Amino acid sequence: MSKELIRLSKCSMAFDGEYVLKDIDLYFKDKEFLTLLGPSGCGKTTTLRIIGGFLKPISGDVYFDGVRINDVPPHKRAVNTIFQKYALFPHLNVFENIAFGLKLQRQNGKKISKTEISERVLEMLDIVSLKGFEKRDVTLLSGGQQQRVAIARALVNRPKVLLLDEPLGALDMRLRKDMQNELKRIQQATGITFIYVTHDQEEALAMSDTIVVMENGEIQQIGTPEDIYNEPKNAFVADFIGESNILDGIMHQDGVVEIFGRKFSCLDGGFAKLEPVDVVIRPEDIDIVDSSAGMLRGTVTSITFRGVLYDIIVDFHGFKWLIQTTELYPVGADIGINIDPDGIHIMKKSSFSGMFGDYSSFSDEYENISDAEFEFEPMEDVERTEDRG
């Protein structure tokens, strides 16, 4: 198990009297790829800048290898940073850009030898897949190649931590996806801790060992990509990480939740009897069946073709659900849906309850479509699955 490398203890930050970080408690493990994820203004970049030494928290402490570093300047921390703008030197070639920092360093009071500089630069070029580009003009490189030069320049100094502040934002979608794979490969090859900031949940899911979801200057959830996606802690996390239908429910007992007056089997428990809860149902976890055979029945109000599948909006008693399907159902079609117990996730009510999950705003056309008919008999009994996880 990797050791703890960095810890933020009760760190807060405010600008002009407005708090952007509120008593953050967070630690980072050695050799992990950790992503700070959230929308603009959530506090993720402020957290990164505190780690890098560019900001000093107004309260709380920052520890590196167990040593408090609040007053240590950026250039004396074993940390390097890559920003969205790579800031390469246009008058220097690839080799010279990467070697720039090494030429300024001293070891035991002496400059690093030209031989060692050359060896370390060539090693980095090999790691970032730019072997043979030593003499290339950086202004003639593609965006992805320039980013690799920036990564090599940061890593050649052998930091213990690399901070990356939305470095893929300037790249097109295809190149961005390619670089996600490259960054993960480079992190694994070097064994350096990567702390990555992004608002793109697909990036976070693809690259991270650990994701920290932030909003309103606070940590909403920490976990693996699988945990964050499959077991969101509140409505904000469920909505921000992928698409979600988030509904009001009532927990009758362990494994039984009521939605729209119907009882459904689920795998969650530990709630009080008749406790109001938030219910998350992912669009891909809904099975479409004949309207006469469904647990619920609704009307298709919108269709969007996504290449491999269709996003369809379905009206259930005035609440619009997003369902993903490989089959085409026309607007106006009455459909039924079934949901397996493991497709229903129960969450405690929070300050984010009621803010997300209804796709009524998905299209302006909804205002011109009447609600689906809603006539259901209350269910007295619920079939239980044998495997409750």
Helix content: 10-25%
| Poorly predicted parts | 362-389
Question: What name does CATH use for the topology of the largest domain?
Answer: Rossmann fold
Please tell me how large the radius of gyration is.
25 Å
Number of DSSP strand runs? 22
| CATH level-four homologous superfamily name of the largest domain | P-loop containing nucleotide triphosphate hydrolases
Annotation field: number of helices: 8
Describe it for me?
The protein has 389 residues and is of the alpha+beta class. It has two domains: 4-230, P-loop containing nucleotide triphosphate hydrolases (Rossmann fold), CATH 3.40.50; 244-368, Beta Barrel (OB fold (Dihydrolipoamide Acetyltransferase, E2P)), CATH 2.40.50. 22% of the residues lie in helices and 33% in strands. Helix 2 crosses helix 3 (114-127), helix 2 runs parallel beside helix 4 (143-155) and helix 3 crosses helix 4. The chain is elongated. Mean pLDDT is 88; it is low at 362-389.
Task: Note the topology.
Elements: E1 4-15, E2 18-29, E3 33-37, H1 44-52, E4 59-64, E5 67-68, E6 79-82, H2 94-104, E7 106-107, E8 110-111, H3 114-127, H4 143-155, E9 161-165, H5 173-190, E10 193-198, H6 201-207, E11 210-215, E12 218-223, H7 225-230, H8 235-240, E13 245-253, E14 256-259, E15 262-265, E16 275-281, E17 286-289, E18 296-305, E19 310-316, E20 319-325, E21 334-339, E22 345-348
Parallel strand pairs: 3-10, 3-11, 6-9, 9-10
Antiparallel strand pairs: 1-2, 1-4, 4-5, 7-8, 11-12, 13-14, 13-16, 14-15, 16-22, 17-21, 18-19, 18-21, 19-20
Helix pairs in contact: 2-3, 2-4, 3-4
